[in-house]
Amino acid sequence: MDQIKVLLVDDHNVVRQGLKLFLATQPDINVVGEADNGQDALVAVGKYQPDVVLMDLVMPKLDGIGATQQIKARFPDVEVIVLTSFTEDAQITAVIKAGAIGYLLKNVEPNELAAAIRAAQRGEVHLHPEVARRLMQALGPKEQPTVAEPLTEREIEVLKALARGESNKQIADTLIVSEKTVKAHVSNILGKLGLQSRTQAVLYALRYGMVSLEDIPL
Could you give the domains of the chain? Predict the structure, then answer.
């Protein structure tokens, strides 16, 4: 069984140890390293090459928003899940823009955390329900903007599938195309809409009424 490599980033040792104890019970998840600040997290990502980073927000030296932005710039294939106690709209929006694929609160049920890690490794977005609702309240439904190059019908299909939490493989199987083709569609969608991540694409689909909050597995 291929294991999902996870890096823990939190300035509280007791939090990291609790996460390690739980994740050690998951046969498909392997904690490969730890860091207690954002700067050390960047070094650790380069050293351990994790699949997923569990990232706190408020830390010394470099906070979770800055660390996420730099990780995604240097290591675009590494997925970041925010794990924090904070639900301020500004922080949520900033770290999603930085490239986080998930946003969970520290009171998350352990099994949901494990599920979110697996989803992130597949490239699927996972947001805590409260976080998703706060984002929707902040964004509000609006008329879809005019873009220089509109999405094709197939790209709209792919965008809606992304918003429903489907992986590239699931989308490929449904549309009877290769995963490589799906990745190309996702890249085109992000480019046309001026977005930087799958998470932003999901929020775009929500904001402009292409899917509803009930369509998204949270």
Answer: 4-137 (3.40.50.2300), 141-215 (1.10.10.10)
